[in-house]
Structure formats: structure tokens, C-alpha cells
TrEMBL record:
Bias-annotated ranges (Acidic residues): 28-37
Region of interest called Disordered, as start-end residue ranges on this chain: 1-65
Main location: nucleus
Entry GO CC: nucleus
Name of a matching Pfam family: EVE
The protein's name in its UniProt record: Thymocyte nuclear protein 1
Segments forming domain EVE: 73-235
Compositionally biased residues, Basic and acidic residues: 10-27, 56-65
Organism: Ceyx cyanopectus (Indigo-banded kingfisher)
Keywords: Nucleus, Phosphoprotein
Chain's gene name: Thyn1
Length: 242
């Protein structure tokens, strides 16, 4: 029996710990254009002592030139607490993933066009943060990797599934999913509140999290990350929580 879907994009809400966030309008009706993938050099390494050291490293590496944006990592939201959707519990925590055979599962149930396009852009071996969402304290708990690229999401054809889509046809499926595998837990829980504090600081001084989609398009369950965003957030696991 397959696990409940990992995410709900329809009617998604901002995380409970972010009451002051401006909730973006869901874009179910229009299919966003995929961004053209552009090449960029990854940063030399991640900062382990905050934005000041990170900024020094980036200035010396880039020679003052602004890099073009490319997305090569991801953030996947899933709900760790029980919640019924059409009679089905959609709970799926990182512990549930670890309990799967080979610690691997499919990431199904995505019903937003832009999020689906991000799924289809994922490449084998790319890593993603596993993010606990819609819970008492949302945040990043671990890292997973893509072990199978996009293929049709079978739940769109299952009338008993809460994400059944009667308009989708097997000869031309509307929705896709990927397979992910557990890599490791982060060294500590990285809460949304901490990431948001860095985001706000970086908006003021041009740091790597200034345009992080977790805050600009927070309702999306599948979000891309640049190399800089991924490395900076990962560096936070080495620091003592504030």
C-alpha cells in the first residue's frame, strides 16, 4: 500500500510560525514558464561562521561580478503531523521516510503547475532539504537525494486518493513525481525562524538568502535552491542555535 501523498499544493497555507508572512495567491490556474537553466560556478565552500565570513569568501571568489542564477538543489516540504484530507492522513515525516525499504519513496501528490515543473527539472543525484511544514515549529530536519527522475504520478488516476484528478489522462499525464532517498539528518534542527532572520538580513546587505523562495513563494511545496542558498543554509547546522 503506497504512503499518503507528501504534499498538498491546493489550499496550501503559510507555516504557522510565520503569521506576518504575506500569503501568496495560489497559481493553480496558470502554468508558470520554467526558468531557463543557466550555468554558474558553485562557491568555493560553505561558511561556518555566518554571513560576514561568507561575504568575504564570495567577494574574493567572484571578483565583484554577479553570478547568473541556476538551481541545482531543492527544498521539499512535508507534513510531520497527522492531518486528514478527504479521509486520508497525509502525514509524512522524515522518520517515515527512514522507515521505508531502502529509505526510499516516491514524492507524489503535487498539484501545482510550477511545483510540478520543478519536479520535472530535478536531476539524478541532486540533493534536497527535507522540510517539516504546517507544524508547531517548521524547519529543515534532513537531506535527501533524487534517485529517480520525474515520471507519472499514479495517484492522479486513483479515485480513492485525495489527489485524484479526473481531468488527467494516462496517455498524457498532467502530474509527475520523483523518487527520493534519505541521506542524513542535519546536525541540528534548523528552524524557519532562524532562516528567516538571515533572509531579512541578506535582503538588506545582499546576502545569499535575499531571494530565497521559501519567503518569496512560500506556498510552493517544491522549491529550488541555488548553490549559494543551499551551502549557506547547510553551514547553519555547524552554528549554535540563536
Amino acid at each position: 500500500m503506497p504512503w499518503p501523498s507528501r504534499k498538498r499544493d491546493k489550499g496550501a497555507v503559510a507555516d504557522k510560525k510565520e503569521p506576518d508572512a504575506k500569503i501568496a495567491k495560489t497559481e493553480e490556474e496558470t502554468e508558470d514558464k520554467e526558468e531557463e537553466e543557466q550555468s554558474t560556478k558553485p562557491p568555493a565552500g560553505s561558511s561556518k561562521s555566518g554571513w560576514k565570513n561568507w561575504k568575504k569568501t564570495k567577494e574574493s571568489d567572484s571578483g565583484g561580478e554577479e553570478s547568473k542564477i541556476t538551481y541545482c538543489h531543492w527544498l521539499l516540504k512535508s507534513e510531520p503531523e497527522s492531518r486528514l484530507e478527504k479521509g486520508v492522513d497525509v502525514k509524512f515525516s522524515i522518520d517515515d521516510l527512514k522507515a521505508q525499504p531502502n529509505q526510499t519513496t516516491f514524492w507524489d501528490g503535487v498539484r501545482n503547475y510550477q511545483a510540478r515543473n520543478f519536479l520535472r527539472a530535478m536531476k539524478l543525484g541532486q540533493q534536497a532539504f527535507f522540510y517539516h511544514s504546517n507544524c508547531k515549529e517548521p524547519g529543515i530536519v534532513g537531506i535527501v537525494k533524487i534517485v529517480k527522475e520525474a515520471y507519472p504520478d499514479h495517484t492522479q488516476f486513483d479515485q480513492k486518493d485525495p489527489h485524484y484528478d479526473s481531468s488527467s489522462r494516462k496517455e498524457n499525464p498532467k502530474w509527475s513525481m520523483v523518487d527520493v532517498q534519505f541521506v542524513r539528518m542535519t546536525k541540528r534542527f534548523i528552524p524557519l525562524s532562524e532562516i528567516k532572520a538571515h533572509h531579512l538580513a541578506h535582503k538588506a546587505d545582499g546576502g545569499p538568502l535575499k531571494n530565497m523562495m521559501l519567503f518569496t513563494r512560500q506556498r510552493l511545496s517544491i522549491q529550488p535552491l541555488t548553490q549559494e542558498e543551499f551551502d549557506f543554509v547547510l553551514s547553519l547546522e555547524e552554528e549554535k542555535p540563536h
